[in-house]
Amino acid sequence: MINLAFAKGQTYIVAGLGKTGLSTVHSLRASGAHVIVYDDLSDISKLVAEGYHAYTDDLDWSLITALVLSPGIPHHYPKPHFLATQAKAHNIPIICDIDLLAQAFPSAKFYGITGTNGKSTTTALLYHQLKALNLNVYLGGNIGYPVLDFDVQGPDPIFVLELSSYQLERVPHLNVNTVIWLNISVDHVDRHGDMIGYVQAKQHIFAKCGHPQNIVIGIDDKYSQQCFEQLSHDHAKALQAIDTIRPELSQHPVLKGDHNYQNIMAVQAALSLNKLQFNMNAFAQFGGLPHRQEYCGNHHGVIYINDSKATNFESTQNLLRTYDQLHLILGGVAKADGIKGIEQYAHRIIICYLIGQAQHEFATYLEHHNIPYILCDFLDQAVQQAANHAKAGHTVALSPACASFDQFSNFEQRGDTFKLLVQKRAQ
Q1: Measured between alpha carbons, how far is 61 from 332 in angstroms, rounded to an integer?
Q2: How many CB atoms lie within 10 A of CB 281?
Q3: Are 187 and 37 in contact, with CB atoms under 8 Å apart?
Q4: Distance from the Cα of residue 279 to its chain's centroid
Q5: Residue 245: which of 219, 279, 292, 220 has the closest Cα?
Q6: Residue 417: its pLDDT value, please?
Q7: Residue 247: which of 226, 229, 268, 228 has the closest Cα?
Q8: Residue 186 CB: number of other CB atoms within 10 A?
Q9: Contacts of 249 (CB under 8 A, 6+ apart)
Q10: From the centroid of its chain, how far is CA 89?
Q11: Residue of 119, 153, 117 lying closest to 137 (CA atoms)
Q12: Could you tell me the sign of the dihedral formed by the alpha carbons of 268, 236, 117, 166, in that order?
């Protein structure tokens, strides 16, 4: 647990009491802060019994140091949470747990990784490389454990953080020394209003994070290209062309597919800017991450892949470029562009199995493009149908191109359910 010494005697409101919120509550209290708790859905009576104060409408906002808002709770669009509205009216900062970490370690080195796709893999690979150099490094942010649960030991800590657009809106004290900006595609427009709002939220990693010393930016999409051009004008000395190697991926245990070249080269560039060497032995041993083209087994010659992290079609395309003879499970809560463009991969797809809220929308699109599909409603039915139709040499993949919230709490639960269903078939 992080010691937030600067917070001693201060009063914070923590709203949203999931895993990260509870971590924040406990860290603040252990550091001597006064903590007021609020959650729209969860029962807070247990916390109140433990001595925490529940939010009340007669709160004196002049006593509040900051509102620590869960990343999932909006403070602007589509409608600000009432606590955010109150905080703004009283000129109270709205922050997240990562900002508290930054305040606790103002002199630490921070690597910040953002973009639409590939963030988690890139973050984990960079962490793996830095660990191989025996550095005092910690992995967190939008991946892994809550950052305030870190057990920081020794001098010169290095924090490698995956940073979402939701988090980047709430980190006024975060000084990212090295930024990796991978790519931008349509995502989270429901939260940010449109693509302009989404990109602007991402750009806080530059505008609000102390002007990074080192910047690595992909330029494969128009939004990132525009960002690069602006940065070239504002940060000419920070942007450099980096010589990187293009390792052979066909034999790598998990990092298959051309999309991973961007992730790998971004890590190589970030290390090079910090005068550190990319370790090929450590790279060969990198085990990847759950739910990202995760190999789940081979049953009767059929390969099963869990790509539940593919919550938009841009990410699903990475799988479609990597595998063929696919039995593809799609569906959930669709993003703005749905599965537009899947027709260019029709030659790789045998059948699509559709689940969740988006299944009828996707069925209409697939039918228009003569791609076979089966309506399955639920994931267990989709796995059953795919297993029935798949033959040796085929691949069954969950790569939904959708958010999970219609039937699952998150993409992790969806992926874990898929893995359990596959395991049961092997018994």
Answers
A1: 40
A2: 7
A3: no
A4: 25
A5: 279
A6: 98
A7: 268
A8: 17
A9: 255, 256, 257, 260, 261
A10: 31
A11: 153
A12: positive
Residue (of 346, 362, 349, 363) closest to 395 by Cα position: 349
pLDDT band at 189 (very low <50, low <70, confident <90, very high): low
Total Cβ atoms within 10 A of residue 244 = 16
Distance CA 212, CA 370 (A): 48
Choose among 182, 181, 132: nearest CA to 158: 132
* Residue 237: per-residue pLDDT: 43
What are 274-307's pLDDT values in tens digits?
A: 999 999 888 888 877 889 888 898 999 999 999 9
Domains and CATH numbers, the chain: 5-95 (3.40.50.720), 99-284 (3.40.1190.10), 294-426 (3.90.190.20)
Q: What is the pTM of this model?
A: 0.80
Residue 241 pLDDT: 55
Nearest to 10 by CA among 62, 54, 47: 62
Helix (H) or strand (E) holding 366: helix 359-368
The average confidence (pLDDT) of the chain is 89
- Tell me which residue of 316, 309, 382 sits closest to 348, measured CA to CA: 316
Give the 3-state secondary structure of residue 65: coil
Q: Give every CB contact of residue 411 below 8 A, 6+ residues apart in sequence.
A: 291, 308, 309, 311, 403, 404
Whole-number pLDDT of residue 236: 46
Residue 332 has pLDDT above 90, yes or no: yes
Q: How confident is the model over 107-132, as pLDDT tens digits?
A: 999 999 998 888 888 999 999 999 99
Instruction: Please compute the mean of the pLDDT values over residues 156-174 and round it to a whole number.
Output: 92
SS3 355: strand
Q: In which band, very low, low, confident or very high, does the pLDDT at 54 lie, cut at 50, 70 and 90?
A: very high
Cβ atoms of 153 and 224 closer than 8 Å? no
